[in-house]
Every structure is written in C-alpha cells, then in structure tokens.
C-alpha cells in the first residue's frame, strides 16, 4: 500500500508539472522562476557556442561557469531529450519547484549544493561542508554566505574538546577547504577556457 501511495503521488506531481509547463503563461514562468544565471536557453546557447569552438562569454548571454558548462555539454550529449525527464524526477516531491521545473531552471544544482553544505555542516563534517560551500559559490556567489554558519559551528564549544586551539584548527581546516576548492575550480575554469580569465566578468560581474 505504501508503494502504491508513493506511485500515485509521483504521477500526480509529475502531472501538475507537465500541466503548468504546457498551459501556464511562458512569460510569467520565465520571469518568476529563475534569473539569467539559471536560464536553460542560456545553457543551450553556451553548449552550442562551446561545441562550435566560439568564445562563449563574448555576447554576455551565457552566465554558467566554464566547468559547469562542460558538464552540461556532456550531460546533453548522453541524455538528449531525456534531460526533461530527469528534471521531472528530481523536482517531483518539491511543491515549491513547480515553476522552476516548468521553466527548466538550472537553479536546482545550486540548491542541491546549498542543501549538502548545510547537511554536512550540521553533521560536523566541516571540511566537506566548506568544499560544498565553495562549489555553490562557484555557481553563484551568494552561497559564500554559508561559510558563516560553518565557521560558527567550528567555533562552537563541544563536550568532546573545548580547547581554543582545537576550535581554531576546525576553523582553519574549514577555511582551507573553501579556499582550496575555490582556487581549484577557478583555475580549472581558466585552463578549460584556454588560459583566459574573461569568463569572470560574464559570470560574476555582469
């Protein structure tokens, strides 16, 4: 009975999303559901320019980081039209994601990194949490604010070890994870773009 209920709810939620996608005003959906950074058309444009060997960031249309764009390119190559189904499944049980799904917003990736940043933080895996935080910040700068709760947890006194040196060590490893991951992602993007930093303006300063 439990599995039947789960199946019924899955069908219902998928049906709602399909109806909204095809029946609601597309202008309303696109204006409500995502920013230019999450625009699926922008992703497709970036993948097309990348595969054509053109400069992706010249026209100020594409705002996806280079490494993310490479991953989208690989995903589209192997999934083709099935990407819509993956969006359906991932968004199925989140009622707040109906409009985001209908517009095929890529914000779900940023949301997932933010969620795992908090989950690992409150599980006391601060180094991993800071790495997730850096990944989210790479996709969208706002995620960098999540470094504050990570550092707050690092400085919190625990029954296991209340020494100041231990808390400073936890803060240091958290900052190290964040900085190292950020530097690694940006340098990887620099290499992926043919040793140029022009992508920074289009992604973070547009």
Automatic annotation (TrEMBL):
Keyword Membrane: yes
Keyword entries, A-Z: Endoplasmic reticulum, GPI-anchor biosynthesis, Membrane, Signal, Transmembrane, Transmembrane helix
Topology of the protein relative to the lipid bilayer: Multi-pass membrane protein
Protein name: GPI mannosyltransferase 2
Lineage: Eukaryota, Metazoa, Spiralia, Lophotrochozoa, Platyhelminthes
Record field: transmembrane: 82-101, 108-127, 139-156, 168-190
Similarity-based family: Belongs to the PIGU family.
Main location group: endoplasmic reticulum
PANTHER family from the UniProt entry: GPI TRANSAMIDASE COMPONENT PIG-U, PHOSPHATIDYLINOSITOL GLYCAN ANCHOR BIOSYNTHESIS CLASS U PROTEIN
Any one GO cellular component localisation term in the record: GPI-anchor transamidase complex
Subcellular location: Endoplasmic reticulum membrane
GO BP, sorted A to Z: attachment of GPI anchor to protein; GPI anchor biosynthetic process
Pathway this chain belongs to: Glycolipid biosynthesis; glycosylphosphatidylinositol-anchor biosynthesis
Signal peptide location: 1-25
Record has Protease as a keyword: no
């Amino acid at each position: 009975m439990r599995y039947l209920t789960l199946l019924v709810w899955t069908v219902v939620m998928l049906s709602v999303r399909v109806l909204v996608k095809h029946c609601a005003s597309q202008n309303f959906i696109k204006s409500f559901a995502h920013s230019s950074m999450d625009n699926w058309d922008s992703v497709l444009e970036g993948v097309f320019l990348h595969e054509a060997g053109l400069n992706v960031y010249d026209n100020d249309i594409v705002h996806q980081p280079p490494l993310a764009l490479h991953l989208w390119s690989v995903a589209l190559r192997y999934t083709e039209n099935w990407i819509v189904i993956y969006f359906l499944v991932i968004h199925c049980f989140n009622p707040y994601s109906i409009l985001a799904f209908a517009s095929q917003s890529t914000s779900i990736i940023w949301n997932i990194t933010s969620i795992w940043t908090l989950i690992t933080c409150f599980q006391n895996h601060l180094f991993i949490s800071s790495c997730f935080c850096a990944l989210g910040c790479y996709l969208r700068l706002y995620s960098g604010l999540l470094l504050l709760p990570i550092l707050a947890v690092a400085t919190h006194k625990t029954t296991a070890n209340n020494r100041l040196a231990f808390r400073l060590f936890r803060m240091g490893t958290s900052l190290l994870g964040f900085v190292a991951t950020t530097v690694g992602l940006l340098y990887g993007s620099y290499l992926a773009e043919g040793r140029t930093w022009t992508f920074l303006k289009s992604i973070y300063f547009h």
